[in-house]
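[Automated response] Your request has been received and processed.

Submitted sequence:
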Amino acid sequence: MRLLIVCLLAALFAGPLRAETAAEILSANAGLVEKASRQSIAPVIDALGASGDPMAAEVLAAWADKRLGIRKADGVFLLLAPDAAGYALRDLTGAAAGVAARSEVTELKPNAGVRGMIATALVQFTLSDPDRAKRAAALESIATDPKLEALAPLRAAIEGETDAALKAQKARLERLLTLRFDPSSEARVAAITSFGGDLGLDLRGALNPLLATKRVAAATEPAGNIARELRVGRDLSEVEAYDLLVGAGLALPRLTVEAERAALVANLKDGAVGGIAVAELSRQDARDRAYSALEVAGTVPQAMTDAEAKRAVSDFYFYDIYTEADPAVTAAAAQALKKIGYKVDVMQAADLALDGLSLASIYFLAAIGLAITFGVMGVINMAHGEFITMGAYTGYVVQQFVPNYTASILIALPLAFAVTFGAGVTMERLVIRHLYKRPLETLLATFGISIALQQIFKNVFGTQARPLTSPAWLDGAWSLNDVVGISYIRIAIFVLALVFLMFFLWLMKRTRLGLEVRAVTQNPTMAASMGINPDRINMLTFGIGSGIAGIAGVAIGLFAKVTSELGTDYIVQSFMTVVVGGVGNIWGTLAGATMIGGLQKLIEFMNPSNTLAAQTYMILFIILFIQFRPRGIIALRGRAAGD
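Generated structure:
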């Protein structure tokens, strides 16, 4: 008999208990399901996800899509499909269950919050879906709303993943969930250290909550993972400390001056309050004693005076305690974030240098034409910015006729050079050549031309910004990591600046035109006696400088708004670049652009909320720089330097 009982018990407990089916879970929680809310439905959704029922995923999906209903006659949950008679029904095993009129079925309509919870529960079923897009969407869903429940199915889905990129993404996400939710301290610490010097924002987003703290007050050292002990007056004020005591129920609310005065006035009898004469109530200590007497008598509510609050604070200790209970985990997280912080600082410096170099290339491209007209010829051309604008508008016009953005940019670059070259030659022939060696008159004349050109642009193109669209291959940015990155357009402008640097050096050092330009610049009379036509050289030089400004306009227009005032945003920086670098020296222009671009980005980094102040500081610095080095960074030597 005893043996029979043992065998029966063994048979009873030999196998695992049968898991509930989706139908049983829904039936047992019918009331919650029918009136589902985000606050109450989570246990039901979690139970469906963990049930192991092959129909669980379909049931959850149907619920989210409003294809789950309850038959009014017997309260059975059914899957719904539109039908001429109302609904075609299937039970929760997938078998057909006939049809029903719409009036016979209560259609479940979960709100957005419940649908979001269902979507999270469905993630575990889609992690191994044959469709790669669905697997990727499941990973994104887990990353957006990480939960402990996703850890086990995520681990199970890694081994069978066939896509290398998704497999790496799953493995990374598994480590992120492990360091937050795994019950094993060793596993969490190992997951933290496995990232090394990774700078990913997702890693920092997972580590930072591990170091979150809450402030507590206690009469003795509290239990828990203590981050640090707080000193009143150094780490927190006396008011903050007492508020902690009140919040923890360790002290009575503080008595305010207004409440104390009102209580004393209300309890004034026979010229005294609480046995203290009114004449004595001019002192705070007397008012406190009077209020304490009223407390003893039960006339007023219990409260703490300032003196009592100060004494109460001195009787307690105050701590920051980690919300994470495991000290090993917080120590590993703190060490990891410290290493990441050092690396982030280095990467931010690199990113700042890259931004400065990018801005320098823009300024150099805008100033290289001015380096010719102002630096070489000595002509102060205040309309140089309008040649930049003219080039940008040329690019815009080309794109109206050539819809292919790559082809339109390739056409716009030489066309902008031709248009602005022609405009520059026309301006030199009609105005500039009559004003050589008269800088003030040249400045005033070109300033007037600048205003006139701006008005012409407004009349032709209007005051609205016009789009100059970059090709698709220039969209996006090159990113080294989550800290260092630069847009492809900026890289293209940097390359274009280098091309024109090489072009200028070739033009001035390797061509007859360059030789003649240098000769006319140094001594026009001697150059004329050698058969060089100074007027022709001046015209071509001014035209080339204007043409390069037009190409700069196309490049700048790819990321800036193309308006009639586009050039005015760069004319000041262009002049500063040429003057600071050294008038008449292309290497000086390059050095000046690098200095101004880097300096502006550095000032903006130190004062990011006020770009106008950054520009002001930069101009002040340049004024001081010129006081000490009036000829610029790289000054001309020889006869040209004396002109």
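Summary generated for your ticket: The radius of gyration is 39 Å. The longest helix spans residues 327-376.
If you did not submit this request, please reply to this message.
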